[in-house]
Amino acid sequence: QVQLVESGGGLVQPGGSLRLSCASSGSGFSFVAMGWYRQAPGKQRELVARIFGGGSTNYADSAKGRFTISRDNAKNTVYLQMNSLKPEDTAVYYCKGIAALTHGEYWGQGTQVTVSS
Question: Could you give phi then psi for residue 89, rounded to 5 degrees?
């Protein structure tokens, strides 16, 4: 059973930075695409950024210019570097992977990011 495990969340002041990591526990298991989503209290889960096997990326408008998604295929790990954080970035951040063979979706358990002074 493949699991995605996020880490790196926490409390940060406005203007600060955090780096989220999402590691896959399955050996020999690959994802055709991986992404980061977030869900703030009372709101729907939304896409933040995603990266595809060839390295192409796309971002939500709110993340462009501030967040960078990257991937280490050898480690089956995806990262989200978040800079210039704002209070409205406060949310639970989830990692999602799309399996290469089945296109099944896998989600992590989420990591809390709180931006507050």
Answer: -85, -5
